[in-house]
Amino acid sequence: MVKAGLGTEELGKVRFWQLSFSELFGSFLIVLMSSLIVSRHDGKAVILAISLTTGLVYSTVLFILGNHGYFNPAITLSLFLSKRIPLIRMSMYMFAQLTGAIFAQLIAGYVMIPFWYSPYGPGAPLPNEDVDIFLIFVLEIFI
After folding, report:
1. Do residues 110 and 128 lie in contact, with contact meaning Cβ atoms separated by under 8 Å?
2. C-alpha distances in angstroms, 24 versus 11, 27, 104?
3. Strand (E) or helix (H) holding 138
4. Tens of pLDDT along 95-132?
5. Alpha-carbon dihedral angle through residues 39, 42, 43, 45, given to the nearest 10 degrees
6. What's the rounded Cα separation, in Å, for the pair 28 and 100?
7. Could you read off the pLDDT of 64-99 as tens digits, one per residue?
8. In this structure, which of 23, 39, 63, 106 has its CB flanked by the most CB atoms within 10 Å?
């Protein structure tokens, strides 16, 4: 068990920053993919598709980034309150998780037309007219 406290000695360790970046990147991927799968359906919550996609993305991110990932501020807070992680780690992880989620929502909202504005009916996944076609191509390859 980790001694809970401030944990300021962790700031100088490379592993701390690697884990913080993996929290940011993992949260980014999970929120981005979950947002895009929800935008592909016509407002009806297709529970099976949404839950399978989110679960597969979560397990893939855990496999790629290592089995330490929390990717959820509620889990990070509960670990801090149970004195399993220090204050500095909790603060940095929560900052990274929220930053990753915000960037994912910004990209999802910028690239995809919301389903209620689609000229082909709700749920048609169309790129935003203001976005460069090359950017859309690169993001589709990444996704």
Report:
1. yes
2. 17, 5, 10
3. helix 133-142
4. 999 999 999 988 887 777 555 555 555 555 566 667 77
5. -80
6. 4
7. 887 677 888 999 999 999 999 999 999 999 999 999
8. 23
Give this prediction's pTM: 0.72
Q: Taken in order 106, 65, 39, 135, is the CA torsion positive or negative?
A: positive
Q: How far is CA 115 from CA 46, 51, 93, in A?
A: 14, 19, 32
What backbone phi and psi angles, to 5 degrees, belong to 94?
Answer: -65, -40
Separation of alpha carbons 110 and 30, rounded Å: 17
* Alpha carbon distance 132, 119 (integer Å): 20
Residue found by looking up tokens 């959820």 in the block: 72
> Hey, CA dihedral for 38, 129, 105, 16, is it positive or negative?
positive
The Cα 115–Cα 40 span in angstroms is: 8
Residue identified by tokens 């859309």 is 136
**Residues forming beta bridges with residue 112, ordered by sequence position:** 127
Here the tokens at position 101 are 């989620």
